[in-house]
Design brief:
six-stranded mixed sheet; about 15% helix; Immunoglobulin-like; Rossmann fold
Length: about 525
């Protein structure tokens, strides 16, 4: 049975089977790799990040059967007693909210448990049918949906109830009509993790992915890129600038190595040599100047990177100041001459600045107020208290928020130009089918973009006939491309992003660093059947 436990908590998984003669057992992890020593009906594990397991049971006659996959989910909850037996322990309670009519609100309840607990939501003491997951989402708020919400959490040991969350409708005098609008919203997110000459990082993968999803919910066109060299970073900035114009809200986010020199902040490209030199890195102030030159309505730069002072020979970047513009915001993960840290949070790596940024970014508040809440939360975190402090600089003269609506009227030509530029790099291939007539097999291919320069190809075998036995599907690319997620721990964090709901592909292929393709890429599809290899 699946479980949900704190880090490093000992868990025993058990399987019971009936068969002829002595039975053999072999446990496998989510990489489908045999677990060392996992040859008994019971498997005891102690994990610091989430994992999945399956057991194969076989007899002396080569008959075998697999159990269902079970998940060991890890939640970072230091308040669990050592005497905890596995009864539901609620770590996240739903929060009361005041909602405007017609809006959507979300409640969440999360609990530890052995086995993993079941959830059932209630409103005003009445059960809500089919609302049996951790998250409850209610759309189109009205008088029929307000009230007191509770979640019952249970497993075979016990049942626990969450704290009540009161949902109220805001009175008319609390519903200001939005007056500040954008003509478009554009965001460029860059995460560098695999460095040629510097220590590698873990956090940028999930940080960039989660922030991109949140900004898309706010109506942003998001370009998210991983592992860029200096020429690639400069090219990405140039394309980003083409999407900016009057009235546009622009967000530039970077996670990776960085430093400060002579009052300038520099972002380290993946190919930057040792020691740091300004000519091998990207100057943040130069990026902001270019954004200002495009006359965007709001320019926000968010940097989850270190700012240690790094003295070096040679001149710093020369930047001529523009006329004062009241539309800029800098959100630094840390203060001058200080480091920015990444931590393990619930089994995943995250920059601690981005952790709290993602917590608050959807709030309909002035962008500087959002960053102030990030600063307050980070300042209370015991992991970095006294070592990392958020710094905010801005020249805002209006209460602009990332949640401001988009109004395109009067900007039709500029919008069409941005649409054309946007579609060049953001249109996915459609679902395709490939026939292997020799073995009477059809393969279906589908595509998903984890990031703007990372494409995942899913291959599924369909319509196998009696002629096809023991088919194996292999996807490869020509030219072969580096898998930037293959490092220790990174592949595990990406598993949840690769699995499509309701369907398990037979094969997946990650195509990374697509910006380095100079020619159109080719896929090689290989089908193995009865010792015969067919390639198309």
């Amino acid at each position: 049975m699946s479980v949900c436990v704190p880090p490093n908590h000992e868990v025993t998984l058990r399987v019971q089977a009936i068969g002829t003669g002595a039975l053999k057992y072999q446990w496998f992890d989510k990489q489908q790799t045999e677990v060392a020593g996992g040859t008994e009906p019971e498997l005891t594990v102690s994990l610091h990040r989430s994992g999945k397991y399956i057991c194969r049971v076989s007899d002396l006659y080569c008959n075998y059967q697999f159990t269902e996959w079970v998940k060991v989910r890890i939640l970072d909850e230091p308040g669990v007693s050592r005497m905890w037996r596995g009864e539901p322990h609620i770590v996240i309670h739903p929060i009361s909210q005041t909602v405007k009519p017609g809006e959507t609100f979300t409640l969440k309840c999360t609990a530890l448990g052995k086995p993993a607990p079941a959830y059932q939501w209630y409103r005003n003491g009445r059960i809500l049918p089919k609302q049996t997951t951790e998250t409850l989402r209610i759309e189109n708020t009205s008088a029929d949906t307000v009230g007191s919400y509770l979640c019952a959490v249970s497993n075979i040991l016990e049942e626990r109830w969450s704290e009540a969350a009161e949902i109220e409708i805001a009175p008319p005098d609390q519903q200001p009509t939005p007056t500040l609008m954008a003509t478009d919203k554009v965001a460029l997110l860059i995460g560098n993790l695999n460095y040629n000459h510097h220590l590698g990082l873990m956090a940028p993968i999930m940080d960039v992915h989660e922030l991109a999803n949140l900004l898309q919910q706010l109506g942003f066109r998001v370009v998210s890129l991983l592992d860029l060299t200096l020429p690639e970073m400069q090219a990405a900035i140039d394309k980003f600038l083409q999407l900016l114009d009057r009235g546009v809200y622009a967000v530039f986010y970077y996670a990776g190595h960085g430093y400060e020199n002579s009052g300038r902040n520099y972002l380290v490209a993946t190919d930057a040599p040792r020691p740091y030199r300004t000519e091998n890195c990207l100057c943040v102030q130069r990026v902001m100047q270019s954004m200002q030159e495009r006359k965007a309505q709001l320019n926000v730069i968010l940097l989850d990177t270190c700012r240690k002072w790094y003295k070096q020979k040679g001149p710093s970047s020369e930047i001529k100041p523009l006329a004062p513009l009241g539309n800029t915001v800098y959100g630094y993960a840390t203060s001058e001459d200080a480091e920015a840290f990444e931590v393990q949070d619930g089994g995943k790596s995250t920059g601690i600045f981005t952790k709290y940024l993602n917590k608050h970014v959807l709030k309909p508040e002035r962008v500087t107020h959002v960053l102030e809440q990030v600063s307050e939360d980070l300042g209370k975190d015991p992991l970095v208290r006294g070592r990392q402090v958020v710094e905010i600089r801005h020249t805002l003269t209006e209460p602009r928020a990332l949640t401001d609506p988009v109004r395109t009227s009067g900007h039709t030509m500029e919008l069409r130009q941005r649409d054309a530029c946007w579609k060049q790099a953001n249109v996915l291939p459609g679902r395709r089918s490939l026939d292997f007539p020799y073995c009477a097999v059809k393969v279906e291919l589908s595509f998903s973009a984890l990031f703007s320069n990372v494409l995942v190809v899913f291959g599924t075998v369909r319509n196998t006939s009696a002629k096809a036995q023991d088919c194996t599907l292999i996807l490869e690319s020509e030219p072969q491309m580096q898998d930037i997620f293959s490092g220790s721990g990174r592949s595990e964090e990406m598993d949840s992003l690769l699995v499509k709901s309701g369907e398990t592909p037979d094969c997946t292929l990650r195509l990374c660093c697509l910006q380095r393709l100079q020619v159109q890429g080719l896929f090689v599809f290989e089908m193995k059947n009865r010792g015969i290899d067919l390639k198309f």
